[in-house]
UniProtKB/TrEMBL annotation, chain A:
It holds the Pfam family Fer4_22. InterPro entries: 4Fe4S_Fe-S-bd (IPR017896), 4Fe4S_Fe_S_CS (IPR017900). Residues 204-236, 284-312 form the 4Fe-4S ferredoxin-type domain. It comes from Geomonas paludis. Keywords: Iron, Iron-sulfur, Metal-binding. This is 4Fe-4S dicluster domain-containing protein. PROSITE patterns: 4FE4S_FER_1, 4FE4S_FER_2. GO terms for molecular function: iron-sulfur cluster binding; metal ion binding.
TrEMBL record, chain B:
PANTHER family: COENZYME F420-REDUCING HYDROGENASE, GAMMA SUBUNIT, CYTOSOLIC NIFE-HYDROGENASE, DELTA SUBUNIT. Pfam families: Oxidored_q6. This is Cytosolic NiFe-hydrogenase subunit delta. One of its GO terms (molecular function) is iron-sulfur cluster binding. It comes from the Bacteria. Residues 14-153 form the NADH:ubiquinone oxidoreductase-like 20kDa subunit domain. The keyword Oxidoreductase applies.
Automatic annotation (TrEMBL), chain C:
This is FAD/NAD(P)-binding protein. InterPro entries: Cbr1-like_FAD-bd_dom (IPR008333), Cyt_c3_hydrogenase_gsu (IPR012165), Dihydroorotate_DH_Fe-S-bd (IPR019480), FAD-bd_FR_type (IPR017927), FNR_nucleotide-bd (IPR039261), OxRdtase_FAD/NAD-bd (IPR001433), PyrK_electron_transfer (IPR050353), Riboflavin_synthase-like_b-brl (IPR017938). One of its GO terms (molecular function) is 2 iron, 2 sulfur cluster binding. Residues 9-109 form the FAD-binding FR-type domain. [2Fe-2S] cluster binds at C249, C254, C257, C265. Its cofactor is [2Fe-2S] cluster. The keyword Metal-binding applies. It comes from Geomonas paludis.
């Protein structure tokens, strides 16, 4: 029997131990009632009973807006990645899989310097969850894409570690743990909506036209998606000379996304929805054949007009006479 | 480098946009190093219009013959004409009742039964009369955006445009969605972002002060608001607060 | 100390050596990058692109108009169309610039060896094809017949006209020029047809079964030329298209340049027409 069980009553002490490994961030509720990951100054602010945060943890690795270069005297130099040691506590399996997907994009050659600096200093502590109607993950989905995972039960949490850092966390918290029953091996499910046939984007499904006409291009679906990472790069000259080059989250449903000087390769919203379908469910080089949908349900939850692209993969419902 | 010769002025407007520029305290020393403010009646005396400007930054809508005269003068004297703020771009608050009110009645209301009323016509954006080279939207514009524009003009270019709606920044800031969660009359989906969702961040709906975003799905926004129980009149009144004309059938 | 890994975002520094105006709005910029950049550029294959930074303006993807020369410079042919190019056109020799690259896949030179090559350029599309042409002519014995067909709107917009005429006169290639219309009197130089590029192709007799065709031009040109070439007997896998997209990052992440499931910055910008079948948004 290994010491791998944390009683609920010792959770606060456990969180204090986690602080030894970096600034502690965890799920909380804002004043206006929005769920989000935020610095956990007071353990009383912890909200473990959450379904989904509005913005996924990608914000820690790929900030909404980031200065990537500074320019002075005609020469460019890199911006500061702003990375510090951080422990992100209470992440659901879907979001862990989301980070695993982003890792494949940003840690492949050539490694993205800002992302990799922040990723290297981020400790991930996952936690099991209870899906709601918006979730579309397989039941009992458990991700191993973290340092430590907490499986919740009535009395406390079963801890499983999946990395060297996870073992270090466990060792540091050993005095708080008890012997628990051995855990069944976790099943790493990966992205949980299966890859789709790219040709489906040209199907005659009537929902394509409907979505194209109702989508307001607000950008919420991709802002809130744990695996959307398209970004724009812009440079602003400074008043004192020089300039700043930023990158900022972009959205494939904006008119500018497929533009070049004098032409737009995705001129209509329908073209852009097809692009979104293709990127989400079929993958681009080198992730062709990979679906990046982790089943968190955010896109459906935040869409003002109830667009759910997954509906395009099933035969249209019979129209009622 | 020769400093840019700049004119900054207002037509029919509240001067709020010009004040925003004056409030850029951190940037003013750099701004003054790059620009020679030849004509800026709000901020200094001894202004002259008898030169060629590299840029004229013009706030406000056009609603009087005097406005028009000044606008033509600046257009002819300037390499770049910048529509500065929502009024200059879309007509703004002064134009909100353009579709419903008669100019003559308004003049009588303000000036009573005076014998000679001032000449005035429906407030309109600069682009209705002259060609506009660059624009900074907002009521008032964000400090950062006017600083970006002046910096870009000084560098010989224009700043790259932002073309996302208020919702994009609003969601990214983890605000509560006032349209979906509180069923309020929020115009975020059809309004140009760049303000970092200033109002929704404090719990106030987007009133649309920055004008329409590119390819705004106006028809769907209208449907969304009607579904939430707002009347067509109320919606149109709100939408026209900063821009009198919207195409309510527009989907792209 | 030199960093072991150069950040993929960070441009190498470079400066503008000289600029030659080719038409009213298009100029050829000769740029000298620092030594480390030249080392990276030594692997350049015609058709690949670089990211040119104009400080304070931003970055644009450009396919060099020639191979990086022995004297350590890169030639970029740029039309004034947007914020960044506008700024570039205002610069004086000596001005600081930034350069990243080369990126993407260029022309499949090994596959093309021993075969006739037909280059079809429309407008500014001559720029990427010029670097291919220079390579072909420098290794002339490695390839079969070389033919360049180049179409421009009008004679004043025809880039590199004298230079191309001189190359053709030297005997290494055949050159056909055409303009959509000729408002001014055509003066001296190389003779020039009036008509569209597809018209020129129609009357052309060539060994279609063995030829590699390389096409670069504005979007509508691809659609008709690919069909014409296939009709003439050139297999789709031997029709090479150099495509234009808004590459932001150059390393396959920002996703602006996606063409179907492919990314123009990684899989392209040179594609085989056969790889683009079934992707309507490609052309």
């Amino acid at each position: 029997m290994a010491k791998n069980f944390l009683k609920t009553s010792r959770l606060d002490q456990f969180l204090e131990t986690l602080r030894l490994f970096g600034e502690l961030h965890a799920p909380t509720i804002s004043e206006s009632g929005v769920h989000g990951f935020a610095p956990l100054d007071d353990p009383a602010d912890l909200n473990l009973d959450y379904r989904r945060t509005q913005i996924p943890p990608k914000k820690y690795l790929l900030p909404f807006r980031e200065e990537i270069l500074q320019c002075a005297g005609g020469k460019y130099r890199e911006g500061n990645s702003g990375a510090g040691d951080m422990v992100l506590f209470g992440v659901h399996s879907c979001d862990l899989e989301g980070i695993a997907y982003l890792d494949r994009v940003f840690l492949s050659d050539p490694v993205d310097p800002g992302y990799s600096a922040r990723r290297a200093r981020l400790t991930l502590v996952g936690i099991s969850c209870v899906p709601d109607d918006y979730c579309f993950c397989p039941e009992e989905m458990t991700s191993t894409a973290c340092d430590l995972f907490l499986g919740a039960s009535a009395e406390g949490f079963h801890l499983s570690c999946y990395s060297t850092r996870g073992r270090a966390l466990l060792a540091a918290a050993e005095h708080l743990l008890e012997e628990g029953a051995p855990l069944p091996a976790a099943t790493c499910s990966g992205p949980c909506f299966p890859p789709q046939d790219p040709d489906l984007r040209f199907s005659d499904h009537p929902l394509w036209q409907k979505f194209a006409s109702t989508c307001v291009s607000c950008g919420a679906c991709s802002v809130c998606c744990p695996t959307c990472y398209c970004f724009d790069v812009r440079e602003y000259p400074g008043l004192a000379g020089g300039g700043t080059r930023i990158r900022e989250w972009d959205n494939c449903l904006f008119a500018t996304h497929g533009e070049v000087a004098g032409a737009n390769f995705r001129p209509d919203r329908l073209d852009r929805l097809r692009y979104r379908f293709l990127h989400k469910y079929c993958g681009f080089t080198p992730l062709q054949g990979t679906s990046s949908c982790v089943g968190c349900g955010r896109c459906k939850a935040v869409c003002p007009v109830d667009i759910d692209l997954r509906e395009l993969t099933v035969a249209p419902k019979r129209v009622q006479p | 480098m020769r400093p840019m010769k700049i004119a900054i002025t207002g037509l029919t407007a509240c001067s709020g946009c010009q004040l925003t520029l004056l409030n850029c305290e951190d940037q003013l020393p750099d701004l003054l190093a790059r620009c020679e403010l030849v004509y800026f009646p709000l901020a200094e005396s001894g202004n002259t219009l008898e030169v060629k400007f590299d840029a004229a930054i013009v706030e406000g809508a056009v609603s009087t013959p005097k406005d028009l005269e000044l606008l033509f003068q600046l257009r002819n004297a300037s390499t770049h004409l910048v529509a500065y703020g929502t009024c200059a771009l879309f007509g703004g608050v002064a134009a909100m009742n353009n579709r419903t009110s008669c100019r003559q009645d308004l003049l009588h209301t303000v000036f009573g039964a005076a014998e000679k009323l001032p000449e005035s016509f429906a407030p309109a954006p600069l682009a209705n009369y002259v060609s506009v080279d660059a624009a900074v939207t907002g009521c008032p514009p964000e400090k950062q955006e006017i600083a970006e524009l002046v910096a870009a003009l000084a560098a010989g270019t224009l700043p790259p445009p932002r073309s996302y709606p208020v919702c994009t920044e609003c969601r990214s800031r983890e605000n509560l969605c006032l349209l979906l969660e509180k069923k309020e009359l929020c115009l975020g989906p059809v309004v140009q972002g760049g303000c970092n969702a200033r109002c929704p961040a404090t719990g106030i709906v987007c009133e649309g002060c920055r004008g329409p975003v590119r390819e705004a799905n106006v028809a769907q926004e209208l449907e969304l608001l009607l579904e939430r129980g707002f009347g067509r009149d109320e919606i149109e009144r709100r939408m026209s607060r900063f821009k009198p004309e919207w195409d309510y059938g527009q989907r792209r | 100390m030199k960093q072991p890994h150069h950040s993929p975002h960070l441009p190498y520094s470079a400066y503008l050596v000289e600029r030659r105006d080719l038409s009213e709005d298009t100029s050829l910029f000769r740029i000298a990058p620092e030594a480390d950049a030249l080392t990276e550029l030594s692997s350049f294959v015609p058709g690949q692109f670089v990211q040119l930074s104009v400080p304070g303006g931003g970055e644009i993807p450009i396919s060099p108009a020639d191979l990086p020369a022995a004297q350590g410079t890169v030639e970029l042919c740029v039309r004034r169309v947007g914020h960044v190019t506008e700024l570039l056109h205002k610069l004086e020799p000596g001005a600081q610039l930034g350069l990243r690259g080369p990126f993407g896949c260029g022309f499949p030179l090994d596959d093309m060896a021993g075969r006739p090559v037909l280059l079809l350029a429309g407008g500014l599309g001559i720029a990427p094809l010029r670097s291919l042409l220079m390579h072909l002519l420098r290794q002339r014995e490695r390839y079969g017949d070389i033919t360049l067909m180049y179409g421009a709107k009008q004679p004043g917009l025809m880039l590199f006209r004298e230079e191309l005429a001189a190359l053709a006169a030297a005997g290494g290639m055949r050159l056909y020029l055409t303009v959509d219309f000729a408002p001014e009197q055509l003066e001296g130089g190389y003779s020039c047809a009036i008509g569209l590029l597809p018209d020129l192709l129609k009357g052309f007799r060539f060994d279609a079964a063995n030829t590699y065709a390389a096409v670069c031009g504005p979007p509508p040109l691809y659609r008709c030329l690919v069909a014409d070439l296939e009709r003439a007997g050139v297999a789709a896998q031997r029709i090479l298209l150099s495509l234009e997209r808004r590459m932001r990052c150059g390393v396959g992440r920002c996703c602006h340049c996606a063409i179907g499931q492919k990314l123009c910055c990684v899989d392209g910008p040179v594609f085989r027409a056969s790889d683009l079948k079934g992707i309507p948004e490609a052309l």
